[in-house]
Amino acid sequence: MSPLAVRAFTATSALGRGLEAHAAAIAGSRGGLAPNDFSTTALPCWIGRVAGVEDEPLPGEYAQWECRNNRLAWLTLRQDGFIDAVRAARERYGASRVAVLLGTSTASIGATEEGYRRLENGAMPDDLQRPAIHTPHSLAGFVADVFDLEGPCLTVATACSSSAKVFANAERMIRLGLIDAAIVGGVDTLCDSVLFGFNSLELVSGEPCRPFDADRNGISIGEAGGFALIERAVEGDTSPLFIGYGEASDAHHMSTPHPEGLGAELALRDALARAGIEAGDVDYINLHGTASQKNDEVEAALVARSFPATTRASSTKGFTGHTLGAAGILEATLTLLAMRDGVVPANLGARTPDPLCGPQMAWQSEQADLRIALSNSFGFGGNNACLAFARQGASA
């Protein structure tokens, strides 16, 4: 694949707003998880909540899109020069040549939940009779409206791999000449459906999650938003590069990964091949690492058998929680920051390493020259994605 430039990127999570807040948290190994204060009835767990979302409504011109998910999107778009970068791309290429390709797991379902809690004579209350928010496409529609874009507008909802798989969609559309640039990313916010749904599967931990710990007992759910602008790289470019991706579906079980990680391995091998690199070229892997029993078991074994000891690997979900459909873009952002700053994130939360983990695991933060990195995103139903990134001059 021809490398694409990551022209701008940004993220918001429990670690804070914008790139520097995330970089500082990673450098200081400071997590953002806190006891659950969000659900409408008590659920003893820890969450990664973004502070202040409820205090910042959308501007009046976007009133039809008003909901927590789009509020978080609006906060995130207005950071790190992202709006200016998109407007410049629109000016260069035209409104019909910039795509909006976004991933989400639950979209604005929190607003729909609220409507059902406040039914008026069996109907949605008047203030929530806004059809645009009661659909999985709410997020992408809102972002396209903000930038007045007319190009392809696509929502990907493949659970936890959603906002990783949009990178693949963007590459294909650019390569085929359908577009010249794409806004990729995703947003997922906390809601009862997510918290109690995962709890019903006995996947939610009563304490901060501990990825790859021998005694891990479940996930911590978080919320996040993130966006990147990608386009063809040009000579003299200094932007980080998106150099490859892999996708696979193992279709083993609705919520449990294949016991031998076959789909995950297919996605990994596909990403390496498309990027034109070998496993030994990879300096860092941001692991999916949810702290669930099966996911970490499968991923730890995959990394241990596939990469040399010099490759560093860690999960950042101990910092942010599992942000579901936003995990792909959030962890891609953290991967790009790790490469920029030469900081391998700690595998926060783990106290006793799982014996399946190999020497690749970085249990504490490390300084390293990170030229090429991967980011794994493995969703329910075996929706697996792996993204490959490189610094300028480092790709094969």
From TrEMBL:
Pfam families: ketoacyl-synt, Ketoacyl-synt_C
InterPro entries: Beta-ketoacyl_synthase (IPR000794), Ketoacyl_synth_AS (IPR018201), Ketoacyl_synth_C (IPR014031), Ketoacyl_synth_N (IPR014030), PKS_Beta-ketoAc_synthase_dom (IPR020841), Thiolase-like (IPR016039)
GO CC list: cytosol
Domain annotation Ketosynthase family 3 (KS3): ranges: 1-391
GO molecular function: 3-oxoacyl-[acyl-carrier-protein] synthase activity
SMART domains assigned to the protein according to its UniProt record, in alphabetical order: PKS_KS (SM00825)
Any one biological process term the GO annotation gives: fatty acid biosynthetic process
Keyword Cell membrane annotated: no
Listed pathway(s): Lipid metabolism; fatty acid biosynthesis
Record keywords, A-Z: Transferase
Family: Belongs to the thiolase-like superfamily. Beta-ketoacyl-ACP synthases family.
Protein name: Beta-ketoacyl-[acyl-carrier-protein] synthase family protein
Gene source species: Luteibacter pinisoli
Lineage: Bacteria, Pseudomonadati, Pseudomonadota, Gammaproteobacteria, Lysobacterales
